[in-house]
Design goal:
The chain has about 475 residues and is of the alpha+beta class. The protein has twelve helices and twelve strands.
């Protein structure tokens, strides 16, 4: 046995209470770390995943790979997400466990320093020295059983040599013995709670029972191997080929399983990226909604302020209106009423001027029509045209006279009421009143002339006379403007 020439690393696991446990990792082997029962190095903690990470020693290099764990794997305080190479001086942090590495040889690992309260611990570890390599390496266990068997080792060894050469990864995953953490070290009785001591002793008894079961399983395996070696001997070539084919199939299945695992890991990472993106979008939407709510709140406050200002303005205007109504009711019926009447008469005068302007426009239209009638060759057609124009003009003038008469009557009534309410009525008439009276007298004269001219028969007048009278009628209001 050449243990001193083998390359291996001592894994030192320390929990939050300072308790440590040591485990050996040989060259070309790997160990799974996690809380699952199938992990070679079991870490009892709720935050540790079932298969948290994988650690292997390849060409004297420590390689650590995280298996998408929940709590994460940290190397020197840095979280890893893929396969990385770990230096021997690095510190691996998993939950509240710290993992360090120590270089050693076979003798140092075979006799580790221990200080346990239970006196049976040194004897147990000492009695298991020769069995420990057998538990870690199945191929080495077969070699020990072959040396102990008599007469059948030469015929039985090649079968296991073929298995170890064809399918080394399957052996590497079973070379490390599952160990449950935390494994208690010795502590003074004064510093340890009695209940904790009882729990540790119970766990020690459980570990001893498991060790006994494994020893029994190994002995049964050795017995079966010896029986097969004595009965069957060296397998035939077809059986060897079938075993090799079976091993190759298993290797292919393992490779496909690794590919599926990698694909699942990629899908998981993609899903995590999608979830992270959705979370970012959700946060952005929440910020956007919050900004909109703030803007709406500010806008509502502005609306309330504007509404209050408008309400105050409306109330102020209502007060001003009430005060104006009171002033109108209490105003003296003197000069204010007179001024209002004068303004009304001026408005009527402006209306009359507008009507006169309309009459002038119609006069110009009639002149153009008359000029066209003069240019006509037929005298009868001209006469009919002039008669029609005169009739239309008389109708328009009569309508205007009626409207003016109504306005004059209303104006006279308003003037009469105003004069009765004033102490000094006629004495205070100004220039506008005089102009209005003159305009009124002119309208009366026009009305009288129209009546006098209407008494004459249209048949006795010539066309020239009728046109001259028409010109006079049209020029009359213009002269009085």
């Amino acid at each position: 046995m050449t243990a001193t020439t083998e390359t291996f690393v001592i894994i030192v696991v320390q929990d939050s209470l300072g308790r440590r446990s040591r485990h050996r990792l040989d060259e070309g082997t790997s160990v799974m770390l996690g809380s699952g029962s199938n992990c070679g190095l079991k870490l009892d903690d709720p935050s540790v995943s079932s298969i948290h990470c994988v650690l292997r020693l390849h060409e004297r290099a420590l390689i650590l790979q995280d298996w998408c764990s929940t709590a994460g794997t940290y190397v020197n305080g840095t979280k890893i997400e893929d396969e990385v190479t770990v230096a021997p001086s690095s510190v691996i942090k998993i939950a509240h466990f710290e993992i360090r590495f120590e270089n050693g040889n076979e003798d140092d690992y075979e006799n580790p320093p221990t200080s346990s309260d239970d006196p049976a611990m040194p004897s147990e570890s000492k009695s298991d020295e020769d069995r420990t390599p057998t538990i870690r390496d199945n191929s080495r266990a077969v070699g020990v059983s072959d040396e102990e068997s008599t007469g059948s080792s030469e015929s039985f060894a090649p079968e296991f040599v073929v298995e170890s050469c064809v399918n080394p990864p399957m052996l590497e995953m079973t070379q490390v013995e599952p160990v449950r953490l935390p494994h208690p070290n010795a502590l003074p009785d004064a510093a340890v709670d009695p209940e904790m001591v009882e729990l540790l002793r119970a766990e020690l008894e459980c570990l001893r029972a498991e060790l006994a079961d494994r020893d029994q399983q190994l002995s049964e395996l050795n017995d079966v191997a010896e029986a097969d070696a004595t009965v069957t001997g060296l397998p035939d070539a077809p059986e060897t080929e079938s075993l090799v084919g079976r091993l190759e199939d298993l290797i292919d299945e393992l490779a496909s399983s690794d590919q599926r695992i990698q694909a699942l890991e990629e899908l998981l990472r993609a899903e995590q990226d999608v979830i992270r993106t959705q979370d970012d979008e959700k946060q952005e939407v929440e910020r956007w909604v919050g900004d909109i709510e703030k803007r709406l709140t500010a806008r509502e406050e502005e609306w309330r302020a504007e509404l209050e200002v408008l309400e105050s303005r409306v109330s102020q205007l209502q007060k001003e209106r009430d005060e104006a109504d009171l002033r109108v009711q209490n105003v003296d019926n003197g000069s204010d009423v007179r001024e209002e009447a004068i303004r009304s008469m001026r408005a009527d005068l402006d209306t009359a001027h507008q009507k006169l302007e309309n009459s002038e426009k119609k006069q110009r239209e009639l002149e153009s029509k008359l000029e066209q009638a003069r240019q006509m060759s037929s005298g009868e057609s001209a006469k009919e045209f002039v008669d029609q124009v005169i009739r239309d003009e008389r109708l328009a003038l009569s309508q205007e006279r009626a409207a003016l008469s109504r306005e004059l009557a209303e104006f006279s009534r308003s003037v009469t009421g105003t004069a009765a309410g004033q102490e000094v009525g006629q004495k205070g008439m100004n220039e506008a009143d005089a102009r209005f009276n003159a305009f009124r007298q002119t309208l009366k004269e026009l009305h009288q002339k129209d009546k006098e001219s209407g008494t004459h028969s249209a048949a006795k007048r010539t066309l020239g006379q009728r046109v001259a009278e028409l010109w006079k009628r049209l020029d009359g209001p213009t002269d009085t403007d």
